[in-house]
Amino acid sequence: MEIPNVADKWSGTVNEITLGATKDKGGTRTKTITIGGAKSIPFMDFEGNPGQKPVVAMDVYDVPPEDWPETLTKPFADVLNDPAQWAKKCVEQYGADLICLKLEGIHPDKGNKTAEETVKTVKSILAAVGVPLIIWGCEHDEKDNEVMPKISQAARGECCLMGVVTQDNYKTLTATCLADGHALITLAPVDINIAKQVNILVSEMDFPLNRIVMFQSTGALGYGLEYTYSIQERERLAALTGDKMMSMPVICDVGHEAWRTKESKSDDMEVPQWGARDERGPMWEAITAVGLLQSGVDIIRMSHPKAVATVKKCIERLY
Amino acid sequence: MISIGERINGMFKDVREAIKNKDPKAVRELAIKQTEAGASFLDVNVGTAAADPVAAMKWLVEVVQDTVKTPIAIDSQKFDVVKAGLSVAKNEILINSSKGDPEELDKFMTIAKEYNASLICLTMDKTGIPQDVERRMEFAMKIVEKAVEHEYELSKVYIDPILFPINVDQKQPALMFDIFNQIKMISDPPPHRNVGLSNFSQGTKEKRLLARIFLTMGISYGLDAAVMDVLDKDLMDAAMTAEIIMNQHLYSDSYLTAGRK
Fold it and tell me: Cβ contacts of residue A249 below 8 Å, gap of 6+?
């Protein structure tokens, strides 16, 4: 008996976006990264082209992170006070495809750094590395609306990925990214309907749909990974069935979320039966990332070099 | 919903005049307005008064293509007129329509395949239009068989079971729902289910209301295409809302905006 072919046929494609601009495209990047392009669900390439490989963006903070456990600070101990050197280390030693600059320090409660100081930081990173940049605000609407436009102008033409905009705060950053040629991250916390809504609102401002990346907020292993997984899976299915307002690539914030959990943070003495943190923490981060990869993710934000290496190896093997 | 905008038709005075005087203004305006209203296809019909239907069809298709990129439905049952439209086509094309006689289907499917066009097939032949579900489904089966025989993609086939005006035969509209349902299960993928919506309520006092309610009920049974008045905003909104209720698209607060993009 002939075995029936049960492969699904998909009519849609995830938008392809190239981040970063080289000299001939008006930027100064030496490398660009293209994401998206999937015509099938992840790891089912017999159903269609799986698109571009997922990429890893390593987190760099504009201020030394206060709540990181030693396991996480150790690999960056010499550079935590210098975001440019930190970024360089991530790219040159740890193989980061992109750098995600998290502007923690601009938050009014966490340093309240000015736009001028932050522009300097951004410029120093652009000078130090050749990979594309993700620039992530502090998610305090007023402060982001004050600082992000100035950063956007300072990085004009570099085609950075800037974020995040939400249903309630999207106009300022959308307008400035449109003017300065950047891509945009639309955030809807674990809500697929709002995800679509933000995309529609942004597109109503004539922002091109093929310059948007979606972010659903991320749950780490044991802390809501399954919710993130299920939303991202539904998003990917919507894209593949041709919903133009949902055909954007997806970004996850794995590093920050995985390292907030007690399972990765607790030191070796606290819960001895869990094993050494230097193994356990990176493993928690890597498992969160690899789990979410199956749902359809294009950029994974990560922190620990060991976890990054594991996940990159896994991507290489599966694609 | 695959909405086929019906306004570029020589039966309407403005289009008839445009064809006669070779003045593209009215046609361009209708192409833009219907596209903005969210039309998936723009139906193009030279009407009955055109002196040279072949030349008129070429001209109409060219004017529309010069104005918008919206796909075009070439509306004629005359093979040479359809062929004329196809010969100048640059946009995606739907042929509207072929009758269900085997020789007609052979002719139309061959040319549709050649131009990578879609095709509306009517459940009728030269002997007339069946009045019941069974005979219409026999036609539907034959149309699908023909498509398979021609290796013509079923996703490009639109079956039109011919919706009668409500004031001509009131029993007919309700039969359609059963037919949509059955056509949906005829093959995988199934052919599309299409009706000519305006004809249904022509000459009635509640023309728009009748069309709107039939369309929403039809969608709930699997109707997915209609030649219709896309400039009737209430009708388009109702169709999009019915599709959201049937879980065919992802809900968002601005779903009516998304539906027109």
Answer: A14, A15, A17, A35, A36, A213, A214, A298, A299
ipTM: 0.81
SS3 assignment, position A230: helix
Distance from CA of B189 to the nearest CA of A (A): 10
Closest by Cα among A128, A52, A33, A138 to A90 = A128
Q: Please give the single-letter amino acid code of residue A168.
A: D
187-226 of B, contacting A, C-beta below 8 A: 189
Split at pLDDT 50, 70, 90, the class of B261 is confident
Among B154, B254, B257, B260, most A C-beta atoms within 10 A, so best to mutate, is B254
pLDDT tens-digit profile of A151-193?
999 999 999 999 999 999 999 999 999 999 999 999 999 999 9
The full set of domains in chain A, from first to last, is 17-318 (3.20.20.20)
B247 contacts B224 by C-beta, under 8 angstroms: no
Mean pLDDT of B236-247: 97
Per-residue model confidence as pLDDT tens digits over A279-304: 999 999 999 999 999 999 999 999 99
Query: If you average pLDDT over residues A136-157, what whole number do you get?
Result: 97
Phi–psi pair at A32, nearest 5 degrees: -115, 160
- Of the candidates A194, A195, A200, the beta carbon closest to that of B258 is on A200
| Mean pLDDT rounded to a whole number for chain B | 96
Domain enclosing residue B200, as ranges: 2-259
Does B258 sit within 8 Å of A196, measured CB to CB? yes
pTM score, two decimals?
A: 0.88
Crossing angle of helices B233-245 and B207-221, rounded to 10°: 20
A153-A154-A160 Cα angle (round to 5): 80
Question: Distance (Å, rounded) from C-alpha B26 to C-alpha B13?
Answer: 10
Residue B27 sits in a domain of what CATH number? 3.20.20.20
* Number of domains chain B is built from: 1
